Amino acid sequence: MQILTCPAQLQRLEEILRKCLPFALPVYGAVLNINRGNPSQFEVLVDKWPEFGAVLARPSGEVASGDMGYCGGGGATRCPGTCQVIAVGFVRPWVHWGALGLDFGVLGAGLGYWAHWKQGFRLAPGVRVGSLSPSHVDLLNDTWPYGGNARSRRYLAEILGSFPQVCLQDGSGQPVAWVLTDRFGAGTHSYTLPEHRRHGLMQAALTVAAQRAQARGFPTFG
């Protein structure tokens, strides 16, 4: 496969994939991030250019193999996807390599399916929109179904420092609910602390995340 490095080619690829939404979601989010600074140092490969039939997004220099990134720990738990591939024009429009780690129901694969985000929201008394900091990585690792080990902690620290996230905080500034996005523009970790559930906090966090994604040119789907 051919690695695309020319900015003009990558911009053209973004335009082509946008016309293929939502089927192209897994790779499209990665291409958007690559064309906006490439914070995760990803690369895009095509089987041929410009009349390509398959597109692959992966960490730069990675060689595809049977190992799709398993976390260590007590059991073999699959980490979020390290690469994504779509085949354009086939009956099955895309398959993904590795799990995206979507552990919440409102967001779907790819850039996410925010439900009713245009309807607005109302925060519970004493709750405000804030942001997570590097000091919160252990909290994220402990509350993530795919977490609990050193590799997942490194992964969460990377996306926390490189990609958009939304955090709702209580009056003392402590996180009570949050939404993280990953290298593919997808939701990778969303959580509300148990004692703060059933107050609409996740709907509010997802709404803010969707609004911010739209402002950055990332499409959302309801």
Automatic annotation (TrEMBL):
<dbReference type="GO" id="GO:0005739">
    <property type="term" value="C:mitochondrion"/>
</dbReference>
<dbReference type="GO" id="GO:0047961">
    <property type="term" value="F:glycine N-acyltransferase activity"/>
</dbReference>
<feature type="domain" description="Glycine N-acyltransferase N-terminal">
    <location>
        <begin position="125"/>
        <end position="164"/>
    </location>
</feature>
<dbReference type="InterPro" id="IPR010313">
    <property type="entry name" value="Glycine_N-acyltransferase"/>
</dbReference>
<comment type="similarity">
    <text>Belongs to the glycine N-acyltransferase family.</text>
</comment>
<feature type="domain" description="Glycine N-acyltransferase C-terminal">
    <location>
        <begin position="167"/>
        <end position="221"/>
    </location>
</feature>
<protein>
    <recommendedName>
        <fullName>Glycine N-acyltransferase-like protein</fullName>
        <ecNumber>2.3.1.-</ecNumber>
    </recommendedName>
</protein>
<keyword id="KW-0012">Acyltransferase</keyword>
<feature type="domain" description="Glycine N-acyltransferase N-terminal">
    <location>
        <begin position="1"/>
        <end position="68"/>
    </location>
</feature>
<keyword id="KW-0808">Transferase</keyword>
<dbReference type="InterPro" id="IPR016181">
    <property type="entry name" value="Acyl_CoA_acyltransferase"/>
</dbReference>
<dbReference type="Pfam" id="PF08444">
    <property type="entry name" value="Gly_acyl_tr_C"/>
</dbReference>
<dbReference type="InterPro" id="IPR015938">
    <property type="entry name" value="Glycine_N-acyltransferase_N"/>
</dbReference>
<dbReference type="Pfam" id="PF06021">
    <property type="entry name" value="Gly_acyl_tr_N"/>
</dbReference>
<dbReference type="InterPro" id="IPR013652">
    <property type="entry name" value="Glycine_N-acyltransferase_C"/>
</dbReference>
